[in-house]
Design a protein that fits this description.
Elements (H helix, E strand, L loop, with lengths): L2 H26 L2 H17 L10 H20 L7 H6 L8 H15 L2 H12 L4 H8 L3 H21 L9 H16 L1
Helix pairs in contact: 1-2, 1-3, 1-9, 2-3, 3-7, 5-8, 5-9, 6-7, 6-8, 7-8
Length: 189
């Protein structure tokens, strides 16, 4: 990679950081873990810049790195579940928010009930603005598989909302709304 390509790579990678953070938050459901995951993905992308082919889809390439890191971390961490003091403290905060905040929080919690592969596909297509082809490249599956996952995710969300059958995680509604709005702002940037 020549000097000009390296500068272009650096500029493009920096521009993708907000999108990587938003995708990481949608996978993790925890802002701190998501920021760590996004940082790891950026570091891995930078370390692997020699294997990137200039002119190809850097967004898909970096999202694939992030996704693979998420699943690697998840496989490693199945043995240990620690107490998160911050989460424990947040569960004690009273909810005093408006209906719109509650509806947004309901969506966040309902999405967390989707299987990871469906949630991931729906986020890439719906919030990430990826085409089905780009999402398939990021996930590493066929385009038809992505379409199927998105379709099932949408149907499952309808069922979840119709039945009201979703788990409450105890996070204050106002924090969930703020988190989702920040993610949307990053995606729009």
């Amino acid at each position: 990679m020549d000097h000009q390509d390296q500068k272009t790579f650096e500029r493009d990678l920096i521009a993708l950081i907000p999108h990587l953070r938003a995708f990481a938050r949608s996978l993790c459901g925890d802002a701190t873990a998501a920021d760590d995951l996004a940082q790891d993905a950026v570091a891995k992308a930078w370390a692997s810049r020699g294997s990137f082919t200039m002119g190809t889809n850097m967004k898909a390439w970096t999202f694939m790195i992030l996704r693979n890191q998420f699943y690697s971390d998840k496989r490693r961490s199945w043995r240990s579940v620690g107490l998160d003091q911050e989460t424990a403290e947040r569960t004690l905060v009273a909810n005093t928010n408006f209906d719109s905040a509650i509806a947004l929080d309901d969506l966040r919690q309902a999405m967390m009930m989707l299987p990871e592969n469906q949630r991931e596909a729906l986020i890439l297509i719906g919030a990430g603005g990826f085409s089905y082809e780009e999402a398939a490249e990021v996930i590493g599956v066929a385009v038809g598989t992505v379409k199927s996952r998105v379709s099932r995710a949408r149907a499952d969300l309808v069922r979840i909302f119709e039945t009201g059958d979703y788990e409450r995680d105890g996070l204050p509604v106002h924090e969930a709304m703020g988190s989702m709005l920040r993610a949307l702002e990053r995606l729009a940037a």
